[in-house]
Design a protein that fits this description.
Blueprint lengths: L13 H10 L2 E7 L3 E12 L6 E4 L4 E3 L3 E4 L2 E2 L7
Antiparallel strand pairs: 1-2, 1-5, 2-3, 3-4, 5-6
């Protein structure tokens, strides 16, 4: 089985997303929205105080934080063996 580097249990990607935005770096993600799909881009806005925290990419795409399965090679624990 292939093992992946993961977040701690109950940890979110918000801190990492903020760091990526502040550096102007590209966010490369695997999303779980009715199946796994890829997304990438520069983060324009982070809406952490929203009831469903989300990010907005420069291309206008809005992504809920909870749908991010992996961010720049770091996975949620439930995806560690994918």
């Amino acid at each position: 089985m292939d093992l992946r580097t993961t977040l701690s249990v109950n940890e979110s990607f918000m801190e990492m997303l903020t760091d990526i935005k502040n550096r102007g770096a590209k966010a490369e993600m695997i999303l779980d929205i009715n199946g796994l799909e890829r997304a990438e881009g520069i983060i324009k806005e982070i809406h952490a105080d929203d009831p469903k925290p989300y990010i907005e990419l420069q291309d206008g795409r809005m992504i809920e934080e909870k749908t991010i399965a992996a961010l720049n090679g770091l996975f949620r624990p439930e995806y560690s063996g994918c």
